[in-house]
Amino acid sequence: MLKTRILTALVLLPLMLAALFLFNGVAWAGFSWLIIVLALWEFARMARLDGGPRYAYLAVSTALAAGLWLQGFVAPAALMALSLLVWLLLAPCWLAKRWPLPTGLPAMLLGWLLLFPAWFAFLAWRPQPTVADGLQLLAVMGLVWVADIAAYFAGKAFGKHKLAPTISPGKSWEGVAGAVVGVSLYSWLVTQWGWLNVPLSPLWLLPLAIGLTAVSVIGDLLESWFKRSAGVKDSSQLLPGHGGVYDRIDSLIAVLAVSHALRLLLV
């Protein structure tokens, strides 16, 4: 399994980096939408949208995304503020109340609320195929990766107190602490390297990075709860050794959406 995971990562990482730094606007919009629509397909599968309704949902979603992009759509602040409410209020309530994954139209709307803002953020954080814009988005995505890696090793080494045992038994508060430490160091480094083009001082970026670490954990736990509610181990088997696309971007979609919303509203 470890060998399969490594081989899959060795294929996906160069592809992601090539898209990030080399693809033009059309290619990047299509590539990033492919990531989102695959995750949306997996979400619809977990929500028991089968057959015709699932494919109609994906077709409508793709047509909507294409129409918005062709019209030069930029997500308004009001829409991204709604995304903030989803991740900072609705998602924690969902986890606290253990609501089941909905079906039918409510599931379709929830899928859009979770995944469309992440696509808007993919486009907004990387508006041009330049090194500066690529590094800017890479800095945001890197926060999620650093948080995951630091949490994994800190949890393995020190984990004793379970974070959410009924949702994701492997996660611990010690892992969260490790993620906070790792992200704090990472946020200082990307500031020194000049990867982020935001007019905020390090004194503001540090608490923001720690807050985004909490958002990352919420995104991870929410998808874990969706899978438990749906009775599946992985969102799919599209990525050998890694499960599904949604499994890989559960934290990322939350951090992308919230970071972009905060940039629109506060910067």
Automatic annotation (TrEMBL):
Q: Which reaction does it catalyse?
A: a 1,2-diacyl-sn-glycero-3-phosphate + CTP + H(+) = a CDP-1,2-diacyl-sn-glycerol + diphosphate
Identify the InterPro entries for this entry. Answer: PC_trans (IPR000374)
Q: So where does this one cross the membrane?
A: 28-43, 77-95, 107-125, 137-155, 176-196, 202-222
Q: What is its EC number?
A: 2.7.7.41
Q: Can the keyword Transmembrane helix be found in this entry's annotation?
A: yes
Task: Print the keywords alphabetically.
Answer: Cell membrane, Lipid biosynthesis, Lipid metabolism, Membrane, Nucleotidyltransferase, Phospholipid biosynthesis, Phospholipid metabolism, Transferase, Transmembrane, Transmembrane helix
Q: What is the annotated localization of this protein?
A: Cell membrane
**Principal cellular location given in the protein's record:** membrane
The pathway it acts in is:
Phospholipid metabolism; CDP-diacylglycerol biosynthesis; CDP-diacylglycerol from sn-glycerol 3-phosphate: step 3/3; Lipid metabolism
* Entry's Gene Ontology molecular function annotations: phosphatidate cytidylyltransferase activity
- Reading the lineage from the top rank, the first entry is Bacteria
Q: How does it sit in the membrane?
A: Multi-pass membrane protein
Family assignment?
A: Belongs to the CDS family.
- Name of the protein in question: Phosphatidate cytidylyltransferase
